[in-house]
Each structure stands twice: as structure tokens, then as C-alpha cells.
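TASK: fixed-backbone design
INPUT:
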């Protein structure tokens, strides 16, 4: 730890391991809004955030709770599974396009970038909704995982019902 006059402390969020400032600056230089995906212990949160010198502003937001409340996702299903992440990304993509944003840059924060992960399931949802996000096809999960067939056969029907609810809500 830095002590004394000649030592310089790192910024607090860097010391706490919350922000990678080099990655953040690369994302901000693109000029496009950031599509932020965070998976917590209980749910997924997808947000479209634009940079403002006074502080970033959230343009659109979808989380696991709003999937249950607004988009007919079953309340007893996981709000952070691969299908739930896909639906949250899909809903965010539809909201972003409705509000006039056509492109974004994916921001996964300090999460590990494993191919087929929940973060990339949300990315697949955004891309399927029509939002232009730069990505490689190799990182996206398979259709079977997105539909929830690896979990249960009833998940596929719940995903289809939620997609239709999202489509109806954002016409």
C-alpha cells in the first residue's frame, strides 16, 4: 500500500477492484452508448448507459425482476439463467431501438469472458432484437441453451411466451 509523500494512491474504485479504468476509457472513446450487463447472485441487470461528464446516465434498463413483472417470465424460474439473460438482453435491445439508439458497445465489467456465458447470452438477445453491437459469433451460446432446453422442456415455452410479450410491449 502506498504511504508517504512520494507515493501516489490509486483511485479508490481501482483499489477496491471495481473499475478497470483502461478498459473504461477504451469503451468511452468509441462514442457509442455502453450496453452494460451484470449478473448478480439473484438476477441479471442489462442497462444502456451514455457518458456524461457530470456522471454516466442510464438511458434504458431491464433486470430479472422486470422480466417477471412486465414480460410474463415465470416467477419461480431463475432470473439469472442463460434464458433469463437472453430475454433481458432482448428486452433491452427492443427498448433501445424504440428510444432511438441503434448501436452500442458491450461492457461486461470485470466479469470473465467465457464463450457461451450468461453475459454473452444477453449480448445475443440484444443482437437478435436489432441492436448493433460489435461481437464475434464464436462467443455466443447455442440456440438450445438460449431456449433453456438444457434446463427443462417447459423453459422453451416460457422463453417463447416472454419473447411475444416483449414484442407486444415494444411495437
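OUTPUT:
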Amino acid at each position: 500500500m502506498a504511504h508517504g509523500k512520494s507515493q501516489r494512491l490509486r483511485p479508490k474504485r481501482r483499489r477496491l477492484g471495481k473499475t478497470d479504468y483502461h478498459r473504461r476509457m477504451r469503451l468511452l472513446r468509441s462514442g457509442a452508448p455502453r450496453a452494460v450487463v451484470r449478473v448478480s447472485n439473484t438476477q441479471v441487470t442489462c442497462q444502456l448507459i451514455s457518458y456524461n461528464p457530470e456522471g454516466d446516465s442510464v438511458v434504458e434498463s431491464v433486470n430479472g425482476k422486470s422480466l417477471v413483472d412486465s414480460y410474463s417470465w415465470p416467477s419461480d424460474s431463475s432470473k439469472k439463467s442463460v434464458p433469463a439473460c437472453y430475454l433481458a438482453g432482448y428486452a433491452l435491445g427492443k427498448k433501445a431501438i424504440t428510444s432511438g439508439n441503434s448501436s452500442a458497445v458491450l461492457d461486461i465489467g470485470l466479469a470473465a469472458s467465457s464463450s457461451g456465458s450468461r453475459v454473452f447470452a444477453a449480448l445475443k438477445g440484444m443482437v437478435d432484437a436489432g441492436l448493433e453491437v460489435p461481437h464475434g459469433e464464436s462467443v455466443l451460446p447455442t440456440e438450445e441453451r438460449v431456449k433453456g432446453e438444457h434446463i427443462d422442456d417447459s423453459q422453451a415455452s416460457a422463453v417463447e411466451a416472454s419473447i411475444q410479450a416483449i414484442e407486444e410491449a415494444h411495437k
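COMMENT: The first helix runs from residue 12 to 15.
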